[in-house]
Amino acid sequence: MVPVSRVIVLGAGIAGHTAASFLRRWLGRQHSVTVVSPNGTYNWIPSNIWVGVGLMKPAQVTFPLAP
Ligand SMILES: Cc1cc2nc3c(=O)[nH]c(=O)nc-3n(C[C@H](O)[C@H](O)[C@H](O)COP(=O)(O)OP(=O)(O)OC[C@H]3O[C@@H](n4cnc5c(N)ncnc54)[C@H](O)[C@@H]3O)c2cc1C
């Protein structure tokens, strides 16, 4: 299916993640939402504090992104 509109979110930080999540929920499936990041991995920043105090591993808050 060819999307009616293609929304591109630049930046996969918390703001980009939040914007994309709401857009995905609010827009119909006929529209596409794509997040573009200059990085190969996504970091769930709110949990970094647990890495800092040794309760989580970096691999638990970092996830590979699609090319
Ligand atoms: C040292 C430090 C420790 C912190 N620790 C914590 C913590 O433990 N827990 C917590 O909740 N918050 C923490 N924060 C705060 C948190 O990092 C920020 O509040 C949050 O990252 C802001 O999110 P953002 O999406 O606005 O910006 P960012 O996280 O900066 O995201 C912006 C993204 O856009 C990308 N980008 C930039 N230019 C482009 C472009 N042209 N095209 C595509 N992508 C682009 C960047 O690579 C980046 O990934 C910390 C901040 C600092 C400095």
Secondary-structure topology with pairs:
Elements: E1 6-10, H1 14-26, E2 32-36, E3 41-43, H2 48-52, E4 62-64
Parallel strand pairs: 1-2
Antiparallel strand pairs: 3-4
The chain binds flavin-adenine dinucleotide (FAD).
The site of flavin-adenine dinucleotide has 15 residues, from helix 1 and helix 2.
Short description, anyone?
With 67 residues, the chain is of the alpha+beta class.
Q: Could you describe the 3D structure shown?
A:
The protein is α+β, with helices and mostly antiparallel strands and 67 residues long. Helix content is 27%, strand content 24%. It contains two helices and four strands. Strands 1-2 form a two-stranded parallel sheet. It is elongated and about 45 Å long. It starts with 5 loop residues before the first strand and ends with a strand. Bound molecules: flavin-adenine dinucleotide. Flavin-adenine dinucleotide (FAD) binds at residues 10-16, 36-39, 45-46, 48-49.
Task: Fill in the keyword field for this structure.
single chain; 67 residues; alpha+beta; two-stranded parallel sheet; two-stranded antiparallel sheet; 2 helices; 4 strands; 27% helix; elongated; binds flavin-adenine dinucleotide
